[in-house]
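Predict the 3D structure for this chain.
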Amino acid sequence: MNMREIIRVALRALARNKLRTILTMLGIIIGVGAVIGTVAIGQGASAQVQQQIQALGDNMIMVFAGSVNTGGVRMGNGANKTLTDDDAEAILQHVPNVMMVSPIVGSSVQVVNGNQNWLTRATGASADITQIRNWPVVSGSMFSERDVDMASNVCVLGNTVAQQLFGDSDPVGQMIRVQNLPFRVVGVLLAKGQNSNGQDQDDTMFMPYTTVQKKISGISWVQMVMVSTASQDAMAPAQNAISALLRQRHHLRPGEDDDFIIRSPNEMAQAAEATGLAMTVLLAIIASISLLVGGIGIMNIMLVSVTERTREIGIRMAVGATEQDVQRQFLSEAVVLSSIGGLAGIVLGIVASALITRFIHWSTFVSPLSVVVAAFFSAAVGIFFGYYPARKAARLDPIEALRYE
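Done. Predicted structure below.
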């Protein structure tokens, strides 16, 4: 028989007991659906984290003020006061492939507009911060370098702050109070949503870092310097050059610990990718147990089928069927059984992923590769667990099979 005829006979044999066939396929359907669903959840979460990290900025390097050791007591990161805006200017001037820098100074502030008030974070930065962070102003404009030089009382609001203070009104050009100081709103930032830690990125406001230093925090140092490089390939050399430059500027001796910390979103992205991959693999392995159980179910039913059809096998051999024909027939039944179950499981996995995204609001991503792999493994399960029953059927003695009642 050709393959088409073998598949037709296999479908007819499976249709003899529809309920048993459906129940047998359930293990494969649930297994494949679970694998696709769990992998989709893992890949969706990983993609979301990667997107959020990339939203921090393009080719960005972050230089943080480090820890300080006072009398044997080590303070947390950011306690050191040696990082300054002059360091930021030196990085821009002396480190190759650095395109923009922005000193960063942050402070929690209470902002007031009329009878509305909101506690948020004032982020002091240079005028280039929106380009470094890839965070455009959608209404109004960014403050200028002249505002930075003059420590002007101007600010750009995040979307959350603008909504809390002004509702649907346009805040551009309006006056607000920040720590009892009058500030003019010059722009509103594009809404970015939550970051990978679940924090609202829009609950912030940008103002000149000099303004935050002199009028809000009362400090002369900076807490962080954001650096934007020309390309991703330039990031690693730039990090090394920045480290060497700051050690020289801060007069650190060989072997002495850095008083700064250098990080990049790429490092966080790699860490998040490794964690996401580990979780995806773990979930897929757990879900694959259902495939194993489904395969055992196929083997069990095929062995029962061989016993029930012993006389039929004897008749086939008596009229000229070879052992290979019998083995191919029963093996094809197992493969068809698992393949149909696999296709139904793929549909189940895709539908489940869509429902999870819609009702639970988890990000999911069904990749074509996961669908192909699931289909391949469902067929492989049929071959693996169907081989023994098919081999047993092929080795039946024709005479004994014809006598079987």
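The chain is about 55% helix and 20% strand.
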